[in-house]
Write a structure and sequence with these properties.
The protein is of the alpha/beta class. It has twelve helices and five strands. It is globular.
C-alpha cells in the first residue's frame, strides 16, 4: 500500500496535485518529535523527492538545492521569537512573499510550491486576505498549510482545502539535511569570538545564533533578526569566512561554503528575501 508521500509524488508526476492542502500529524505516543518537527521533516522529504524527480539527481544534491532555495519553492516561517512573539499571529507583512510569488509562473519545475509553517498562527484577518489566492492560486501552484495543533480554520478556508493527516511510523522520518556537513566546534569558537567583540551584534542575535547552533531552534529566528538588522549581515559573513579559514574541514565543504557566499552576494544584488540569502549559508552549521 502506498503511503501519503508516494501518493502525492505520483500526483505531482501526473500533474494532478490539488491547489491547497492542510497537513496535520498523527504521532505515536513514543515519538520523540513534536508535531511541528514531524510535519517539517515530512514536507522537506516530499520536496526532496520532487527536486530529485525534476532534476534527476541524488538525494544529497537535492538537499543542497532545498537548503539553498529554489525559485519554484517558497517557504514561510513564523520567524520572530523575541518577546515570545513566536506565539503571536503572522503579520500581513510576513506574507508579502506569498503574494508576490503569485506574480510569475514556474521557473524550472512543472509545479510551484508554497509551504506555510505554523499555519495555526494565521489570524482571521490574514485568512480573509488569503481567501482569493487559496481559492484560485497562480497556475500550477500547490499550497501546503502545516497545522501542527490541528487548528480549526475559518469555514471559508477549510472549504477550499484538502485536509491530510500524516501518520508517524515506528521509525521517525529522516531529517533530509542530517550529516551533510560536520559541525566541529563552531559553538565554542563563536562564543569566544563574541566575548572579544560583543559590539558586532545584539545579545538577542548572539543568543539566537547559539540556540540555532545547539539545535535548540531552527534558523529562522536568526534570519528574522538579520532581515531587520541589515548592519549584521556582512559582519556575520566575515565571521563565518574566518571560521572556515581556521576550521580543518575538507576542501569540498569549504568550496560549497564559498559557492553559497557567492550566491549571497548575487541574491543581495537582486534584493532577494533575507531567507533566500542566508538559509543556504547558516544551515551548514547544524
Amino acid at each position: 500500500m502506498k503511503n501519503l508521500n508516494q501518493i502525492l509524488l505520483i500526483k505531482f508526476k501526473k500533474q494532478c496535485l490539488a491547489h491547497f492542502y492542510v497537513l496535520q500529524a498523527n504521532l505515536r505516543s513514543s515519538s520523540n518529535k513534536t508535531s511541528g518537527q514531524f510535519l517539517s521533516d515530512w514536507i522537506n522529504t516530499f520536496l526532496l523527492e520532487v527536486i530529485g524527480e525534476e532534476k534527476k539527481m541524488a538525494p544529497k544534491d537535492a538537499a543542497n538545492i532545498l537548503k539553498m532555495g529554489h525559485p519554484d519553492i517558497l517557504t514561510i516561517y513564523k520567524t520572530s521569537k523575541s518577546d515570545n512573539s513566536s506565539n503571536k499571529d503572522y503579520t500581513v507583512e510576513e506574507f508579502d512573499d506569498f503574494f508576490s510569488f503569485q506574480n510569475y509562473g514556474t521557473f524550472e519545475f512543472k509545479q510551484k510550491f508554497i509551504v506555510i509553517f505554523d499555519a495555526h498562527l494565521i489570524s482571521k484577518m490574514l485568512a480573509n486576505k488569503l481567501l482569493k489566492t487559496l481559492e484560485a492560486p497562480q497556475k500550477n501552484t500547490t499550497i501546503f498549510f502545516l497545522n501542527p495543533y490541528k487548528k480549526t480554520f475559518l469555514p471559508t478556508i477549510s472549504s477550499r482545502a484538502i485536509v491530510l493527516t500524516v501518520n508517524s511510523t515506528l521509525n521517525s522520518l529522516p531529517n533530509p539535511t542530517d550529516k551533510l556537513y560536520h559541525q566541529d566546534n563552531i559553538i565554542d569558537w563563536f562564543e569566544s569570538h563574541m566575548s572579544s567583540e560583543p559590539q558586532s551584534f545584539s545579545k538577542d542575535f548572539i543568543d539566537a545564533f547559539l540556540n540555532f547552533l545547539r539545535k535548540k531552534e531552527g534558523p529562522f529566528n536568526v534570519i528574522d533578526i538579520l532581515k531587520n538588522n541589515k548592519s549584521y549581515q556582512d559582519p556575520l559573513i566575515s565571521i563565518l569566512l574566518e571560521w572556515e579559514r581556521r576550521n580543518a574541514s575538507n576542501y569540498q565543504q569549504k568550496d560549497q561554503f564559498l559557492e553559497q557566499v557567492q550566491w549571497f552576494q548575487t541574491a543581495k544584488t537582486f534584493h532577494n528575501p533575507a531567507w533566500e540569502r542566508f538559509l543556504g549559508i547558516i544551515i551548514n552549521y547544524v
